[in-house]
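Sequence in, structure out. Go.
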Amino acid sequence: MILILAIAIWPVLQSFYFSLFDLRLNDPIRSETHTGYSIDLERYLNNYPFLINALEKENKDSDELAGIKEKLQNINQTLLDTKGLKQNYDKVNDLLDNFENVDSSVSIVELNKKDALAIRKQLSSISAQMKAMATNQQLSKESKLPGLSDGLEDSVIKPNYIGLKHYKDQFTDLRMWKALSNTAIFTVISVGIELLIGLAIALLINKAFVGRGLIRASILIPWAIPTAVSALMWKFLYDGQNGIIAKIFESVGLVDNMAMLLTTNVGAFFSVIFTDVWKTTPYMALLILAGLQTIPSSLYEAASIDGASKWKQFKSITLPLLKSSIMVALLFRTLDAFRVFDLIYVLTGGGPANSTETISVLAYKYMFSQTNFGVGSALSVIVFLCVALISMIYIKILGKDLLNE
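Output:
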């Protein structure tokens, strides 16, 4: 139980935890989870001394600038007077003076909500004053001072806990539902075709004939090729200028021109399904073949003596005894197809116009392309829930069959 929890459940719980935060790795303020208010002393001390120094070099007769400087010094003193903060303040300051890296465990210090809101309000007011003065050309360093004041304001970190907002947004997002429908359509069509072809192949290679071992080994080659490699291979075969498969499809009239396979919505969807069927049908055939091997040949001999035709034998003996094997094969392939990522990512990238974008590809784009770990984690949890639901349905059906047997 502990092993199952560690391997299967713990990563999902982590993803769910991250999905409760507005977590963005490309944003220094939201690159970590924050449940309370805090201050980033590294960012603060990278801006405060330079801002004070710049203010001193501005017009010394300006009462407004003198007031801003006094406010900043009061804020700084408030921070120094905060319990437990001065030690980190001095340590971070020393590290910055020596051009050393500052660890977040030292630079991020918690503040109580009241003090944090008061400091942030004052810094926001100062930032607005700086921008107004820069607009009115009252500052000699008009491009520098507003930037420093903005950096100072951003050093006060607000909580990025947002609860279930990501789930609410995703369940009202048409793109997510489009990705989910693409995933469902891809799964149903590809797995359905693979089942029919895989069953036919399994019935053929189950019979005794010369070279059966070689044929069985040859059939498994597509499945043995890594998915990313086969997807890249088929991408060249579908190429609109030099692709052999694209040329064949154009010649037989499946497409009007070669370029349609990867540049149109229907063509791209057909291409990913065709590739998936080519690659994973051998796996389905292998699982069904294993089930066929367990059926005693004596049953067919008895049926033949009773005058049953081949079709009657197939309906009365093969299919009923093969039902559990087919259900297991469908379970494995459905889960695998629903989580499809590498095939589509390499072959189409989810395009054109997101027409082949699956839920896993969408989660990857949010999490790694946009570094939005909050939304990406929420989508990962949604994928897990869908896979868990599919598994429960299959296992319930499979369990009934096993009990009946």
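Check: The chain has a mean pLDDT of 86. The chain is about 70% helix and 0% strand.
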